């Protein structure tokens, strides 16, 4: 039996505004919930004369678009470090209110749930 293809997903949201920890609303009034946040320490390559402690934390967030009801985010979800607002920029990136850039790693649909995976880029990325 042939697998049914997922319906095409349009453009990612232009804006995501903070509603409460782990919950965002887009420009169409749709609710997005951070269902998973991955945090990995990553060490940047050290050049000559660079401080020994030069490192940056990599953050990846998985957002699911849910029906227009204000869900309760999981109590164990670590959500600090996420911006109050994301704005879509060219090049499949969002810019947060803290001016940090977030790359769109994935934007698709699983069954009837639209999902968006964002990865925070190292500071100084353009």
From TrEMBL:
<dbReference type="GO" id="GO:0043539">
    <property type="term" value="F:protein serine/threonine kinase activator activity"/>
</dbReference>
<comment type="similarity">
    <text>Belongs to the TCL1 family.</text>
</comment>
<protein>
    <recommendedName>
        <fullName>T-cell leukemia/lymphoma protein 1B</fullName>
    </recommendedName>
</protein>
<dbReference type="Pfam" id="PF01840">
    <property type="entry name" value="TCL1_MTCP1"/>
</dbReference>
<dbReference type="InterPro" id="IPR036672">
    <property type="entry name" value="TCL1_MTCP1_sf"/>
</dbReference>
<dbReference type="InterPro" id="IPR004832">
    <property type="entry name" value="TCL1_MTCP1"/>
</dbReference>
């Amino acid at each position: 039996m042939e697998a049914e293809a997922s319906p095409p997903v349009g453009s990612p949201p232009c804006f995501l505004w903070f509603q409460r920890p782990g919950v965002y609303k887009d420009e169409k009034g749709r609710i997005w919930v951070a269902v998973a946040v991955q945090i990995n320490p990553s060490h940047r390559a050290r050049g000559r004369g660079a401080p020994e402690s030069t490192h940056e934390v990599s953050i990846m967030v998985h957002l699911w678009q849910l029906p227009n009801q204000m869900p309760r985010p999981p109590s164990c979800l670590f959500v600090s470090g996420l911006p109050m607002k994301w704005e879509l920029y060219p090049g499949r990136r969002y810019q947060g209110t803290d001016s940090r850039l977030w790359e769109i790693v994935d934007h698709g649909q699983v069954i009837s749930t639209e999902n968006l995976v964002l990865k925070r880029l190292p500071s100084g990325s353009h």
